[in-house]
Design a protein that fits this description.
Elements (H helix, E strand, L loop, with lengths): L7 H32 L7 H10 L4 E2 H7 L7 H10 L3 E5 L7 E5 L1 H23 L7 H21 L1
Antiparallel strand pairs: 1-3, 2-3
Helix pairs in contact: 1-2, 2-5
């Protein structure tokens, strides 16, 4: 049956299942990060903070810019940034041009966590390829559909 042949009820069921899967996938990646950090003895950083570090990477940005670039389930980005500054994962500097603005970037300790997470993601990508879970244009198609959904929801918020 073509997707366009689905009844409204079938579409609703599929839609809600997709929403649950997206949420569960996000939770699962946080679980994987938590297990990796614990296995390596990192007790002063949690999985959400590690994901923040990974998303900052080698860039310098404000907390607001970071907030708009990612979704951090049940987290307070400002609180997490404060904790990571205190634990030495992030450096912050006041902007010379606007003293109200604080720029953040990773310290050496933060870069080490970024590298650890990047390595984990690379390992998972290799396994996904080896097991042929997603092939060819699957990633591009999935990313494209998720971006379309994100754009749709962005438009709903702005109405």
């Amino acid at each position: 049956m073509e997707a366009s042949d689905n009844t409204p009820h079938e579409n609703r069921t599929d839609f809600l299942e997709c929403l649950r899967l997206i949420e569960r996938l996000h939770r699962r990646i946080l679980d994987l990060l938590k297990f990796r950090l614990e296995a390596l003895g990192y007790t002063d950083i949690n999985s959400v903070q590690a994901l923040l570090l990974h998303n900052i990477a080698d860039r310098e940005m404000t907390a607001g810019e970071l907030r708009t670039r990612g979704y951090y389930l049940g987290s307070n980005v400002s609180y997490n940034l404060k904790k990571m500054v205190g634990n030495g994962y992030i450096k912050q500097e006041r902007s010379e041009h606007d003293l109200r603005s604080v720029r953040i970037k990773l310290s050496q300790k933060g870069l080490a966590i970024h590298a650890l997470i990047a390595e984990l993601f690379d390992q998972h990508l290799e396994l996904i390829n080896a097991e042929q879970l997603l092939q060819g244009d699957d990633f591009n198609n999935l990313r494209g559909k998720l971006r379309q959904l994100e754009t749709f929801w962005d438009q709903q918020i702005s109405y």
